[in-house]
Amino acid sequence: KMLESIFDLPVEKQIFYAVLGFSWTVYLWEAYLSYRQRRIYRTTTHVPPELGKIIDSETFEKSRLYQLDKSNFGFWSGLYSETEGTLILLLGGIPFLWAVAGSVTARFGLGSEYEITQSLVFLMLATLFSAVTGLPWSLYSTFVIEEKHGFNQQTLGFFLKDAVKKFVVTQCILLPVTSLLLYIIKIGGDYFFIYAWLFTLAVTLVLVTIYADYIAPLFDKFTPLPEGELKTDIEALAKSISFPLTKVYVVEGSKRSSHSNAYFYGFFKNKRIVLFDTLLEDYSPLNKSGEPHAEQPENEESSSESKARPKNKKQGCNNPEILAVLGHELGHWKLGHTVKNIVISQMNSFLCFSLFAVLIGRKELFVAFEFNDSQPTLIGLMIIFQFIFSPYNELLSFCLTVLSRRFEFQADAFARSMGKATELYSALIKLNKDNLGFPVADWLFSMWHYSHPPLLERLRALGNVKQD
Residues 283-340: pLDDT tens digits? Predict the structure, then answer.
């Protein structure tokens, strides 16, 4: 009967309730998966036999409690965010904010014909709202959970300055890009979706090109890796597979967190590698007794002779392990994973713009969200991309997670083919330990969420390499 009464409703009401219903369906599915994984965290209190040689019971317990805290936090923040989104829709938050943006532009003597200006004010207010409502959750995550488990390295002042900087930088990119996109859609005629897609492609390429040189340094300090054994080895590794490496940087990630990482970026013949200081045994401030943020002089060699280090390293990988990790990362490049991901993302983007072109003229989509008199382009983009495409986005996201896991196995195999299996084996164990990754996963949770295969699966795929 309930279904019948829903189908008796006008089309716009059906659309509205379908969007709301799907959103809660996804939320409940995610909550069920997280519940399954939390049950694993609660019940797996002893190191499973197959992990006995890999992980000690103290680290296992630490990672279990860390992941349990994160999962509990995820439950509450997810519930809040779903409830907030539902209330915004039910109480007409989107048309209300659009009207507020209209009254702001009207104060400057700009009427409804200045739709792009009104859209930018709307966007700024919407991002400000989400930044403010998200702040308490972000503070709790950083200063309660990450702090409790020894990862947070930030002061409150640093955190808030960072948040303001992030907001300003986002606006500086978001507002001009959006205004140009809306302008292109307005003047593009019948083929506007092709021009809009080409414009977003160009913006993506520009951002990828300038991000590491101009945007990332606003938040973190990048230092060229000093001359020495590690740098020479990295250059030799890159040369052995014709990777066009131009620079190697160390980023001071330890000011923010003790989690570790490495990545490469750049187009064509201009590739750079970035290593987090927390990844490097000889650089990690956490390994320097009594001086948590001691800086490594630029001219100092990274060899162990230059400064006596404590024997028991608390964090990071040694040079052969770092080379194995980079062998894995460069494997992504050599096997064309990066290019494949860009192609998939652009095909998806083109498809979405094409469907947007078909749907943007449907008045009922706007009426469903209480836009009875006007059909602003930005609101159309929001309704179609965020709400109408959400079932498709969920499916695509799952497929990309499956593909990503496959790529990770291939990159591991590539590092193995370079003779780095033993080093990668020990590096994966160290990184799992440093980042308190929990090595036991529920199969369904893992299948849906893990873009990287679980540790045990990766180690098995590397083969039964004898550890030192």
Answer: 777 766 444 443 333 333 333 333 333 334 467 899 999 999 999 999 999 999 999 9
149 assigned ligand-binding residue = no
Q: Does an H or E element contain 224, and which?
A: strand 222-224
pLDDT digits (tens, 9 = 90+) for 62-117: 999 999 999 999 999 999 999 999 999 999 999 999 999 999 999 998 887 899 99
Query: Dihedrals φ, ψ of 363, to 5°?
Result: -60, -35
Q: How many residues does the chain have?
A: 468
AA identity, residue 284: S
Q: How many CB atoms lie within 10 A of CB 424?
A: 25
Rg (CA), the chain: 25
- Say whether 329 is catalytic: yes
Looking at residue 290, its pLDDT comes to: 43
Tokens 């716009």 sit on residue = 12
CA dist 314 and 286 (Å) reads: 7
Burial class of residue 324 (count of CB atoms within 10 Å of its CB; 0-12, 13-18, 19+)? buried
**Can you tell me the distance from the alpha carbon of 349 to that of 236, in angstroms, rounded to the nearest whole number?**
38
Catalytic residue among 162, 220, 329, 370: 329
Residue 276 φ/ψ, nearest 5 degrees: -75, 140
Instruction: Name the helix (H) or strand (E) containing 402.
Output: helix 390-417
Global confidence as pTM:
0.86
Distance CA 283, CA 313 (A): 11
Strands 245-251 and 262-265: unpaired
Other residues' Cβ atoms within 10 Å of the Cβ of residue 153: 21
412 is catalytic: yes
> Residue 158 carries which side chain, given as an amino acid letter?
F
Q: Which structure tokens are listed for 220? A: 């973190």
> What's the rounded Cα separation, in Å, for the pair 104 and 107?
5
Which residue of the set 412, 434, 442, 457 is catalytic? 412
- Please tell me the distance from the alpha carbon of residue 137 to that of residue 157, in angstroms, as a whole number: 17
Token pair for 330: 């460069």
Closest to 83 measured CA to CA, from 41, 35, 137:
137
Using an 8 Å Cβ cutoff, are 371 and 379 in contact? yes
Listing DSSP states for 28-88 in one string gives: HHHHHHHHHHHHHHHH--S--GGGTTTS-HHHHHHHHHHHHHHHHHHHHHHHHHHHHHHHH
328 labelled binding-site residue: yes
